[in-house]
Amino acid sequence: MQRNPNHTTIVRIEKVIVETPTVHTLVFSDEIMSNVLPGQFAMVWIPGINELPMSVMISKESGKAAFTVRKHGPASTGLFNVKEGQQIGIRGPYGNSFDVKDGKLLLVGGGTGLVPMMRLLTFVKPTDDVTVLIGAKSKDEVFFEDLSNNLLENNSHRIIVSTDDGSYGEKGFVTDLVEKLVNENHYDGVYVCGPEIMMYKTVLAANSKKIFVQASLERMMKCGVGICGSCCVGEDLVCKDGTVFDGEYLSQNKEFGIFHRNKAGILENY
Amino acid sequence: MNQLLYSKLSSLIKVEPSLETSIGQIQLERPVMLASGILGISLDVFNRLYRSGAGAVVTKSLSTEPWDGYPNPTIFSVNGGGWMNAVGLSNPGAPNFAKMIESNQEVPIIVSLVGSIPEDFELMIKQFKNCKVKAYELNLSCPHVAKVGLEVGDDPELVKEIVTTTKNSTNVPVIAKVGLGTTHYLKTVGTAVESGIDAITAINTVRAMAIDVETQRPILSNKFGGLSGTPIKPIALRCVYEISSKYDIPIIGCGGISTWEDAVEFFLAGASGIQLGSAIGDNWIHIFDDINKGILQYMRKKNYSTIKEMVGIAKKS
User: Fold this and answer.
1) What is the complex's ipTM, to 2 decimals?
2) Residue A66 main-chain phi, psi, to 5 deg
């Protein structure tokens, strides 16, 4: 029988991978989640703690998927602290996905925004020329660099890491690199996920060169199915209309890159 | 040639049915509204829902101050049908909300209010003095937040005071949304009617819960929540029928409506308008247009030109 995506399925965490001091990847077995498209997300229930939207991470093993979480608020810290053998609930997958173009691609990920990028890398063709930009605060917080290299071993590719403090890779904000790269090269597709300001600047840079760009947005969510309205960005609901939006469309949005809503639904500046 | 003439003539004679409806003084172009608590957080979304076919949008229930609501899980889909929620009435507060909708001219907005004492409602209505408000809907029936909603609706004296105070605070029509509490809802309706209410919305979600058998704990963070969606439709329909049989008061039917047949059932039971919410979780916002089209087709088939003609018809049989 087909599983109803809105019904919570309980899965057991089989492995916890420590990516950085603040980022864990939790691996579990689930055929449906192992096959989601890049940009899609699940609602993840940590029993007794909270439920939060998570982009679905790939696993090296077939039939398995994962969540890569940075501890931040009560919900994400609750998920971060989940140990091997513990049970969590998942529902979904929800949302749309990236439109993966052929040719020269630029992927930009900040922090756990790299998760949909890793899944996107499993969809590129061997003929694609792929550049991955990894943004992190410092050396300690860099992850998925090796994974990106492994996933792209059959492609012409480049992995560039930039850290805000310059402790590893290039020094500075990843968006400065984006601007430089789109000024010097033509890309067939630019894909970005990470902090909203980073996505905003990436979209602006690509739009200014008329390069196809898509961003996977993150918002506070309660339902994930278009009922609660918590995740609205202008007239769009990130859960139903996104998470992936075209850059050209986003440039018309009054809230993208400027506001998000708090738990009460009040607009707050980034 | 004759055939062409005939079809032209018959199209002139046959009146195209209209979806316009009046719920007492509340005039709407279309009878299907967005129920309170659903998506009601931004004016841009309201505009989109209106364009999608909603006759009016009811806002999330607003309180005097902003409320964060409960932690997740707050909403989930019930195995077997329907939705359960305990969002906890999260809302930006009446003052913030009023500011947001000040620029609105186009969308018929019904402002839902929640409070504990009459003064809360009086204070909130003042916030909307510069806004175009189609009606106020008093939330006397939210089943999962203490000191407001159903706890207020269950207290006849408080209902009387709140309705009287609200009616004295505004010339805009005031609706009371009732639900299934410990006081019989018909008594609550009676109190509201005696106190001068303009219309009744029936019903709210029904207090309920669910437990996950694997992890052996209640799923909602608040443990208890409200059940909505198709499982409560027959209950809501029964309530509308009972209210319209007992009181001469305009009614808005609400509870599990997800098809045009459901909508028509509520009209036949005595509702002049309907609200929906859970169906959006199952069918997204196309639901408004689908239901509008279905109602129109039914009206053509049954030869009705107005919604009014079918309101309460089922009571005659």
Assistant:
1) 0.91
2) -155, 165
